[in-house]
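To close the chapter, one final illustration. This time we ask the reader to focus less on the individual chains and more on the assembly as a whole: which components sit near each other, and how the overall shape emerges from the parts.
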Amino acid sequence: MKREDIIKPENKVYSRPRLLDDNIMHYCPGCSHGVVHKIVAEVIDELGLEEHAIGIAPVGCAVFAYNYIDCDWVEAAHGRAPALATAVSRLNPDKVVFTYQGDGDLAAIGTAETIHACTRGENIVIIMINNGIYGMTGGQMSPCTLEGAKTATTPYGRRVDLNGFPLRVGNVVSILDGTCYVTRQAVHTTAAVRKAKAAIRKAFLNARAKKGTSFVEIVGTCSSGWKMSPEKSNKWMEENMFAHYPLGDIKDTDKTE
Amino acid sequence: MKGNEAIAHAAIRYGADGYFGYPITPQSEVLETLEALMPWETTGMVVLQAESEVSSINMVYGGAATGKAVMTSSSSPGVSLMQEGISYLAASELPALIVNVMRGGPGLGTIHPSQSDYFQATKGGGHGDYHLIVLAPSTVQEMADFVALGFDLAFKYRTPSMILADGIVGQMMEKVVLPPQRPRRTAEQIKEQCPWAVTGREGSRKRNVVTSLELDSAVMEKNNERFQRTYREIEKNEVRYEARYTEDADYLIVAFGSIARICLKAIEDARKEGIKIGLVRPITLWPFPFDAIREAARNVKGILCVEINAGQMIEDVRLAVSDRVPVCHFGRMGGIVPNPQEVLDALKKDFINK
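The assembled structure is written out below.
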């Protein structure tokens, strides 16, 4: 029996976004990436940007983002996506350029590229999934790993005396003059997904209007890296991650101007 | 004008779309000249001072992925930082131009001239099996001319190319005839010439993805075989060199870049003494002119390889003649440039007054 035999058009109440490919995703069950991919695909479609959007993929779990979202992509070296996005955007000012990165890619090895793209106010969208871990390489400590959190490289929990403090990247880039919009969202509930989508939509509109750099941090889960069930991951994220990374807009120049 | 300034003028006149760089002695005049000329107001060329060489080369990577003619320039320590990006450019089969105005190393080394990045430039430099097309200018005129040549070869073969200059030719002032202004390619021309470019997925076109990643080993091997086929084509078609006084020579000097000019003076002085020396100056350091050196060395008693480094190109010269002719190295290091008399004395010591 084929899938089409089961899913009859008259029964359909929901479908995959047009720009999200049918490829089987490599993400683990419970991972936040799939939902954020869906939101990005929807936003590009709804804003009519499919011929204008150029994505920059990271190194990390989202390295294969280009296999799922149907727009043109460049795959960057680890952490360098904002540098690529800078050039793509400046050389092609009619395009809407976005990076899609994890916190290990963006906030550790790519710190300089991120800070300076934001400082220059590049007209790009930066989406960072903050799950506080290096998922792809097997669950090592990332810059955003919470104090006490056990990872492959902090087997007894992150100690600030050894490893320093978890980095609030959104707050860091919010003080840079080139950012126009900095927000921290999540995708663990329907309400959160709606808010995250509104944020990503606003970020793309900002880039199109050349308002400066928009930075959307999505606090997400990594069930495999955290070694918890998807359900428990969401609970742990709400209780622990949100305490250190509170959700909501951090900066919006539309409201302050 | 200075060699570095010639690079900047030639880039604008080529119709380059973008330059991304970071200051480092002895090549900062490239970025300074471009910023002073403000080409974004004339040709529309983008010029950006990046936060590091790492960012510069990754901006080049991003720009090249969109089919634009983009370049960077730096000097040895900065080019070391760029090796990751250069490897990605090669692996993603992207055309781009990288200029290295070499200074002495290793480490922070010196700001004075050197040719000690020969290995890095010609043998790959970054990780993985790849080559760059490497052009070695010996005059300010060639600094200007090789910008267009470097870009054209890069686009012809979809591979990054490098101008491997040294601090002498970068800082030296000479007369130069600049090429006429070419228009930058239009968006339509880019789409036609670079159907692989990331230009926004229009209409029914499948999406373009520029990536160096391939986890399927069989496909990755195929990719590598394709890269190697390109390199064999380049080796077949693009070897460039200059030969002087080689017909009747008893000895041969092989030297590249500005040092070849010092050697030419030594050769002309030696002729007055009745010593017949020929010169082969490789213009492409990769692909290396193996056949030309083998041919020129057929009747010589010895080859002196003159480089301002500890002896790097000498390995390729020895390969060219399969050690059937004695090959010696003469060089200075630390930024010291030999004069023609030192070169001639070295040749006499190695081959004549043994």
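Strands of chain A lie at 53-57, 72-75, 96-102, 124-130, 179-186, 213-219, 248-252. Chain A has eleven helices and seven strands. With these observations in hand, you are ready for the problems at the end of the chapter.
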